[in-house]
Amino acid sequence: MRAKVLYEHGEERVFALVFESGDEVIGRLEEFARENIVDAAHFTAIGAFSDVVLGYFDWAGKTYLRTPVQEQVEVLSLLGDIALHGSEPKVHAHAVLGRRDSSTCGGHLLEAHVRPTLELVLTQPPNYLRREFDPESRLPLIKIGY
């Protein structure tokens, strides 16, 4: 993955990240956030994946149901945010993917490998987002007001 700062003013920064074939998106993005001290951000991306695991949150079971997609897909839309969970950055992303036959699938992005590229624009705003454990959902959810 290659990265470049596009804009920086005070605490606000905008980065362009270009992922390469084989890069695992969630892990690389969390690594980038740790290395660049990104405590809070939002992002959008387009590109393509060789394989993906999507998730659907099952409220009754309080867990993600996993759906592997073992084919080349276009990333039609990838939206997400980064917030601290404890002291570590955590990515929360949703994707809509296009298949060869122009059908789509989507959900919570649990893991994905890039092929051939993923172009991501990440904006770190001048305020902070934090996650706290929510006992009802059993998920770390963003809390506003820090």
Which terms summarize this structure?
146 residues, mainly beta, 60s Ribosomal Protein L30, Chain: A, nine-stranded mixed beta sheet, 1 helix, 8% helix, flat
Protein model, in words:
The chain has 146 residues and is mainly β. The protein has one domain: Hypothetical protein, similar to alpha- acetolactate decarboxylase, domain 2 (60s Ribosomal Protein L30, Chain: A). Helix content is 8%, strand content 67%. It has one helix and nine strands; from the N terminus they run E-E-H-E-E-E-E-E-E-E. The chain has one helix at residues 25-35, and strands at residues 2-9, 12-20, 40-58, 63-69, 73-85, 88-98, 104-124, 130-134, 139-143. Strands 1, 2, 3, 4, 5, 6, 7, 8 and 9 form a nine-stranded mixed β-sheet that branches. A hairpin with a 4-residue loop joins strand 8 (130-134) and strand 9 (139-143). The longest helix is centred in the first third of the chain and has 11 residues, at 25-35. The mean pLDDT is 94.
What's this entry about, in short?
By secondary structure, this protein is mainly β. The chain has one helix and nine strands; from the N terminus they run ββαβββββββ. It has a single domain, classed as 60s Ribosomal Protein L30, Chain: A.
The helix tally amounts to: 1
CA radius of gyration = 15 Å
- What's the overall geometry? flat
Give the helix level as a range of percent.
under 10%
Content-based structural category: mainly beta
Mind describing the biggest β-sheet?
Answer: 9 strands, mixed
- Low-confidence spans: pLDDT under 50, at least 5 residues? none
